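User: RTA-like protein, Penicillium angulare:
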Amino acid sequence: MDIVYHPGVNGSDPWVEFYPYTPSASAGYAFMAIFGISTIVHIILTIPFRAAYFIPLVLGGICETFGYYGRAWSHESRTEISSWALQEMLILCSPPLIAATVYMVLGRIIRSFDAEHLSSMRPKWLTFVFVMNDILCFCTQLGGAGVQVTGDQQVMDIGKKVVLAGLIFSLIIFALFVLIAATFHRRLLKSPPGILIMHPELKWAPYMWALYVACFAIMVRNLVRTIQFGAGRTAPVNTSEVYIYVFDAFLMFLSMLVLVIYHPGKLIKKARGLAKFDSNRDSTGETGSRHILLTEYEPGNSRG
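Assistant: Predicted structure for RTA-like protein:
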């Protein structure tokens, strides 16, 4: 993805050509609305499910919303840096925010099932390690995108390489995360914890598959973005806007949509409720048994 810097000649002002095409206003506004609605739905669902861990995803949705507003704005201003910078930074940096929520969800599912022994990493460390790496990816991509607004061709080339490094690193991190999630999934099927044995009605598999779909969407998006930043300006992936909407906008919307349909907060809340119910029931049963034994052997209460 190359930005062409044109120095001024014969006293004219220099200018930058940000796009090899004219961005579509209708497509930009359409996805601005799509992401706006998706984000509002996630905000609403966060309340009943007490899913504060979805805040990063909500922030990512807000970034996508305003990012596609920037693309629509660019339709009228192809060479204006403000509209290009808005869409470039927000669209590029929103996936790490959505990924942060995906990382936290797996840790909470593991804890709600009391299945730490089935995980390759302790949930606390799993969340910490992957979220911290995600923050590193976010900062790398944000910094790389940010320096491209300088207009200096050399600095812009450095920024492009920084973004490319961040995208490659995020692909590696995601692959490791999916491996850990799949391993936990397999162990869960082989040796289900007590809560799943006592409550077979707790249908957890669709929520795990929803996580996989979200991960797959983000990974494919990052892969295409990596190809885009590594390819030349004349490559098809950079000369046609359709790639942005098929392999970025649609895939990021898919990652948000699947987590609306199978919101992990519903599973986690139900699992915690059942665990609390079982704990209270066991406690009541033990107390009742102890009371029967004590009264049975009190003086004057002997039987037979």
